Structure formats: structure tokens, C-alpha cells
Amino acid sequence: MKHLRLPIVLTALVVATQSFAADTTGAGSTFVSPVMAKWIDAYKAKTGNTVTYQAVGSSIGIGLIKKATVDFGATDMPLDPKELEKLGMIQFPIVIGGVVPVVNIDGVKPGQMHFSGEVLAGIYLGRIKTWNDPAIRAINPDLKLPNAPITVVHRIDGSGTTFNWSNYLSKVSPQWKAAVGEGTAVEWPVGVGGRGNDGVASLVGLVPGAIGYLEYAYALQRLDKISFGVVQNSTGNFVVPDAASFQAAASSADWTADRDFHLVLTNAPGEDAYPITATTFVVMPKQPKSPERSAAAIDFVRWSLENGKTQAETLNYVPLPQALVQQIEMYWQQSFGPATVTASAGSKR
After folding, report:
1. In terms of domains, do 88 and 114 share one?
2. What is the pLDDT of residue 337?
3. Cα–Cα distance between 282 and 74 in angstroms, integer?
4. In angstroms, rounded to a whole number, what is the distance separating the alpha carbons of residues 254 and 13?
5. Distance between CA atoms of 172 and 53, rounded to whole angstroms?
6. Distance CA 22, CA 154 (A)
7. What's the pLDDT at 265?
8. Are residues 65 and 139 in the same domain?
9. Which of 69, 92, 144, 244 would staple 64 via disulfide (CB 3.0–4.6 Å)?
10. CATH number for 178
11. What is the DSSP string of 281-348?
12. Strand ranges, E, within the chain
């Protein structure tokens, strides 16, 4: 497909930011932080423009963009289109990855431990209390599991990673849905909390017998202390988390069918689909207080979508396909107010 060219006015919006992008700021998702850092470095090396990103969790990021404290927010839980309309904001996806269970069990190597959705829900509900529980042993017959207590680790901050984890558990476990449900923050029945993906990773690494959930890139960074597990998908297959299985889940998505890209990829169909695949979204105001800064943010995002695929793939994220990038560019055309376009075009002179 021929690459879609933006109209002159929006091209002015995103191209003319070279001279004023130094103050671009974003905040939110820790899920996306590893690839965001790579994009920021590559973007600065290419353009000379500086972007600052605070990995403070999806909930805080959305709070900051609502207050116009930052130029863009990043969240792994998409906002409802009705809420976006009320707020005067837009949202669009930027990258796809996965949330994985991680454990600290002596002798268990990465990819060896099998989990079903029901077992994960039972552990996080506090009903499965030891690693040699019959429900765990039934799907791990070849593993030597200790008669040791399970320490549950979860997020204490408002988190899109938590949303995708709890959303998945709500889809596969009626007990979890009834007792806890889904959200960026939930009332955890059991466990101890860490702040951010880093906080959960650190706690699991420190506590023998612990289990937690992380964005996949964080799990790969801690393989000296923790191991990631494989999760049973909707077809009954136990699927190893990696870019290929995230892509298999993403391939089922029809982004054209959902207003403001309001789509969640958990428990996607497909024999090779990883069941806790997740998307990070950018949220921005349609008519920002500073059109120039908003235009600078769009320039960074567009550069990352079109030129940051290698960085994403290196960290086992899935870059968005070109057809979806083109759809996002059309969405920008339809969504941004004239003040942003005018100010950005004016800055070019």
C-alpha cells in the first residue's frame, strides 16, 4: 500500500516542530517505558529535539494530561470514547507488548512453569496457597515444585499493566470477575505491593516463592533472579510470551471497528496467540493550551511509529503495522482543532 501523505496543514503541524520540541513532556505507563527510552534517545540523535518521559503509571499519567501538566499521557488501559469526548481528548495506540507471570522458585527456569487463567486467578484470590497445590501440579507434571507458601506480589499504583492482568483474569475466571473485577487499581484479596513494573520485579526477585506480573521486557531484564511462565490461551495451548505470540494476538484485532481505538487484546483468539497481550495508548487534548507543544509531541510520536520499529522489536514489543499507522494519521487529521494546526504552521516561519 502506498504510504499515506498528510494534508499540508497537518504536515506543517508535525514537521515544523524541529525548532521548538525541546520542552516536550509525557508521563504514564511503565509498561512502555523501556521502548519509550529507546525512542527518545534515537529521536534526539536524529532531530536534536528532547523529549522527557516520566514512568509514573497509567493512572497518574492520565491525571497529568487531564491537568495539562504534560503534553501527552500514556496508558495501557484505553479510555472509553464517551469519557474522551467529555474530556475533549483523543487516544491512539503506539505499541503492543505482553504481561507475563514471573516467579522466584529455585530450579524453575524461564518458560518452564505453566499457568492457566484459573490457576492464576486462584493464586491471586488467595485460594491456591502453596506451590505444590494439586491444581498447579496438574499442569506442571514434570516440575519439582516445593511445599512452600506462595507470596503474591501486585502493583500498588494505578497501572495499565494491572488493568490488562485483571481484565484477563475477569475474562477467564467468573470467581475473579465477581470478587475483584478489573481496573488500573483493584482491591487485592492477598499479597504485597510494589510501585511500577520495577517495584514488582524487585520484590519478586527478593522473596523466594513469590509470584508477580510484569511487562515482558522487564522480566527479561531480571532473569538472574526471576523466571517468566507460559500461559494457556483461549484454544487451550500453553504459549511462550515473545514478540511472535504477541503479534499472533494482535493479528486478530480490527482497529477500524472501534471508536478512538478502544480495543483490548487480552484472551485473543488464535492457536499461537499469547493471552495477556496489551497495547499502550497515547492520550492528548484536541485543543491544547499550547498548540506548539502538542505539535512537538505529535512529531515525536509520528517519528517513533514510522522509524522506531527496530527499537521496539529489540525489546520484544510489536510495532504497529503500517496500515494502522496510516489510520492513526487520518485520525489526527479528523481530531485536532484548528488552533494546533495554525500555531504549528505559524511556527514554521
Report:
1. no
2. 59
3. 5
4. 28
5. 34
6. 36
7. 97
8. no
9. 69
10. 3.40.190.10
11. EEEEESS-S-HHHHHHHHHHHHHHHHH-HHHHHHTT-BPPPHHHHHHHHHHHHHHS-HHHHHHHHHHT
12. 24-28, 51-55, 72-75, 89-103, 114-115, 151-155, 192-194, 210-215, 227-228, 230-232, 238-239, 277-285
Q: Count Cβ atoms below 10 Å from residue 35 Cβ, excluding itself.
A: 25
The residue written with cell numbers 526471576 in the block is 226
Q: What is the pLDDT of residues 162-174, one digit of tens each?
A: 999 999 999 999 9
* Residue 25 within a domain: yes
In the block, which residue shows the cell 524461564? 110
The amino acid occupying position 9 is V
C-alpha cell at 19: 525548532
Q: Is residue 119 part of a domain?
A: yes
CB 328 within 8 A of CB 305: yes
Report how far residue 333's alpha carbon sits from residue 45's, in angstroms, rounded to the nearest whole number.
28
Quick one: 16 and 64 in the same domain?
yes
Q: Is the domain of 92 the same as that of 120?
A: no
Same structural domain for residues 56 and 126?
Answer: no
Asked if 111 and 155 sit in the same domain, the reply is: yes
Residue with cell 505499541: 95
Q: Is residue 30 part of a domain?
A: yes
Q: What is the pLDDT of residues 39-56, one digit of tens each?
A: 999 999 999 999 999 999
% of the chain exceeding 90 in pLDDT: 86
Cβ distance 254 to 309 under 8 Å?
A: no
Decide if 243 is inside a domain. yes
Q: Which residues of the chain have pLDDT under 50?
A: 1-22, 341-349
pLDDT at site 23: 76
- Structure-block grid coordinates of residue 41: 534517545
Residue 10: what pLDDT? Answer: 46
* Whole-number Å distance between alpha carbons of 308 and 143: 40
Residue 168, domain extent: 99-250
AA letter at 114: H
C-alpha cell at 146: 516445593
Both 175 and 310 in a single domain?
no
Give yes or no: residues 147 and 243 share one domain.
Answer: yes
Residue 16, pLDDT score: 42
Count of positions (residues) in the chain:
349
- Which cell numbers in the block locate residue 338? 484548528
Q: Are 92 and 72 in contact (CB under 8 A)?
A: no
